């Protein structure tokens, strides 16, 4: 960061661009700051520069964050980069692609790899970096010293090669491994000569012309198993993708690809299709997703485990084909129409290994999911976005559920009685679910729930919490109507560590001020209480104390 001070700025820029300095940092950014500046703007610019330099998507909603939130985001980002954090699911898929882990009868390679990763964590060779709200390990890391050892070992074994702006080609002399970075100008002839590449991760590109040459020349002999175009500006795949007969993972997340060529169904070894992008709703409270169009023949890809997300508006034929994918562990469906609900329910009954399931209706229409008779017994997370006449009848039998998100359900009755019957539920998000004036949590309800989001419940006036309800709740988010009273039952929630109130009137917040608020005793025991105000130019976050 540099102020505009003539020769001092020139000197700082020389140091910043020095090759030895560059080699010492994982990520860096040059920010010019005037003598009169706003700290929020400085932090936002710095974070954006870091993400742009690493070719990563900039976090949505960042422009609405206050200084404290921005500092937290920046700190977390830099800690992850320093400690070389990686998404665990991605790491597992790469292990499988490189052949490090083999499956056994009845045990897929990914499951065995997860067991190995947990063992490395248990032995402190790998460290936890991020655990999600339901206790699942999301990211892991190694210490920077361990990272240097790994890099030297990989270099010594000719295991991996990184291509960038200053290194546009290589001699192709390395063991089966991965090319981890690319640009539009990279010479790919060496890649064509080396048919031992298992993983190809590309960044900062606009199209995939190299794949046309790459796949046409070698056909079925190409051993490529992992192809990532994540976060690129690529908007279509060539038909020759169908020649990558050994491909196991196709990662198109946050790219511009919105349809897969019919040739994709030739890839019988494909296990993971990740082809979606997330978008925050205008208030920044939940995500909506865009999927990809897939033509007929998807039912022949029997090894598929991840299919996220697929557009359902190709009709009932596609939905019926999904029922043939009996190995699916994760499924996301968008734009499901009401009349296709019964067919979708029939397909779900065949997916006995399914864990996360996301279903989004078309234009927030009705989701008709009442006819499901045999839901996936191992289902852990369920997201339903769209209108519901009532909750699925078989929902209470899903004893493995740890998270449920209901968005725009617009139910005519209080769903609490059905939901509290889920014995292992840890997190519950309800957005525009129920229009009643009162919502009540009774004794013995939600005994394991840790996080509760009650959002966009505009008609809500009274939130009742009885003694013995929500005994282990840690975080509470509320965004009801302007008429709501401060819930007195909050004082009974002794395990609460954070409350977020969204869009409440100022008088509501003032009533909880430590110095003179009559409702302060209700929240006095909660360490973190925040009030989120929405304005035309973004969101403002106020802390109680």
Summarize the structure in words.
It is built from 14 helices and 26 strands. The protein is an alpha/beta fold and 545 residues long. A hairpin with a 5-residue loop joins strand 4 and strand 5. Helix 5 packs across helix 6 and helix 10 (316-322) packs parallel to helix 11. The chain is globular. The model is unreliable at 1-6, 183-190 and 211-215 (pLDDT under 50).
Question: Topology of this structure?
Answer:
Layout: E1 2-3, H1 7-17, H2 19-23, E2 32-33, H3 39-53, H4 67-82, E3 86-87, H5 88-97, H6 109-122, E4 127-131, E5 137-141, H7 144-156, E6 160-161, E7 178-179, H8 189-193, E8 199-201, H9 209-218, E9 226-228, E10 249-251, E11 272-274, E12 277-280, E13 287-290, E14 306-311, H10 316-322, E15 330-336, H11 341-348, E16 356-361, E17 381-385, E18 403-407, H12 416-419, E19 427-431, E20 438-441, E21 451-457, E22 462-465, E23 475-480, E24 498-502, H13 506-510, H14 520-523, E25 528-535, E26 538-543
Parallel strand pairs: 1-2, 6-7, 7-8, 8-9, 9-10, 10-11, 11-14, 14-15, 15-16, 16-17, 17-18, 18-19, 19-21, 20-22, 21-23, 23-24, 24-25
Antiparallel strand pairs: 3-5, 4-5, 12-13, 25-26
Helix pairs in contact: 3-4, 5-6, 10-11
Key descriptive features of the protein:
545 residues, alpha/beta, 17-stranded mixed β-sheet, 3-stranded antiparallel β-sheet, globular, disordered N terminus
């Amino acid at each position: 960061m540099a102020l505009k001070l003539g020769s001092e700025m020139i000197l700082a820029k020389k140091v910043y661009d020095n090759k030895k300095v560059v080699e010492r940092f994982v990520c860096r950014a040059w920010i010019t700051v005037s003598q009169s500046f706003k700290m929020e703007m400085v932090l936002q610019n710095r974070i954006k520069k870091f993400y742009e330099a690493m070719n990563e998507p900039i976090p949505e909603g960042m422009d609405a964050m206050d200084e404290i939130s921005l500092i937290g985001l920046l700190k977390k980002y830099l800690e992850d980069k320093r400690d070389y954090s990686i998404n665990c699911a991605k790491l597992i898929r790469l292990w499988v692609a490189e052949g490090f882990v083999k499956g056994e009868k009845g045990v897929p390679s990914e499951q065995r790899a997860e067991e190995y990763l947990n063992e490395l964590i248990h032995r402190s060779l790998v460290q936890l970096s991020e655990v999600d709200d339901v206790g699942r390990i999301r990211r892991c890391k190694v210490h920077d010293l361990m990272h240097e050892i790994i890099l030297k070992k990989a270099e010594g074994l000719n295991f991996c090669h990184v291509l960038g702006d200053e290194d546009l080609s290589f001699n192709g002399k390395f063991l089966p491994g991965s090319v981890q970075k690319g640009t539009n100008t990279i010479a790919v002839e060496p890649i064509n000569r080396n048919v031992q590449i298992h993983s190809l991760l590309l960044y900062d590109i606009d199209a995939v012309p190299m794949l046309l040459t790459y796949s046409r020349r070698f056909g079925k002999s190409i051993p490529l198993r992992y192809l990532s175009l994540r976060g690129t500006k690529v908007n279509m795949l060539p038909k020759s993708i169908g020649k990558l007969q050994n491909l196991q993972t196709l990662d198109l997340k946050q790219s511009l690809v919105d349809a897969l060529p019919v040739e994709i169904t030739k890839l019988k070894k494909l296990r993971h299709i990740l082809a979606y992008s997330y978008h925050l709703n205008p208030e920044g409270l939940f995500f909506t997703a865009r999927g990809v169009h897939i033509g007929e023949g998807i039912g022949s890809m029997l090894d598929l485990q991840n299919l996220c997300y697929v557009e359902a508006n190709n009709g009932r034929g596609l939905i019926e084909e999904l029922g043939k994918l009996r190995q699916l562990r994760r499924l996301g469906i968008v734009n499901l129409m009401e009349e296709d609900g019964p067919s979708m329910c029939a397909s779900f009954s065949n997916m006995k290994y399914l864990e996360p399931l996301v279903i989004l209706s078309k234009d927030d229409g009705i989701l008709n999911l009442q006819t499901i008779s045999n839901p996936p017994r191992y289902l852990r997370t369920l997201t339903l976005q769209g209108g519901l006449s009532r909750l699925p009848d078989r929902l209470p039998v899903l004893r493995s559920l740890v998270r449920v998100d209901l968005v725009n359900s617009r139910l005519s009755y209080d769903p609490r009685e059905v939901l509290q019957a889920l014995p292992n539920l840890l997190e519950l998000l309800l957005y525009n679910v129920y229009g009643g004036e009162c919502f009540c949590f009774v004794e013995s309800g939600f005994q394991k729930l840790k996080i509760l989001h009650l959002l966009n419940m505009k008609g809500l006036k009274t939130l009742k919490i009885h003694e013995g309800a929500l005994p282990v709740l840690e975080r509470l988010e509320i965004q009801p109507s302007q008429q709501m009273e401060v819930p007195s039952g909050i004082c009974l929630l002794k395990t609460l560590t954070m409350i977020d109130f969204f869009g409440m009137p100022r008088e509501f917040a003032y009533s909880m001020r430590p110095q003179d608020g009559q409702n302060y005793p209700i929240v006095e025991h909660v360490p973190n209480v925040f009030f989120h105000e929405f304005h035309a130019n973004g969101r403002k976050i106020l802390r109680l104390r």
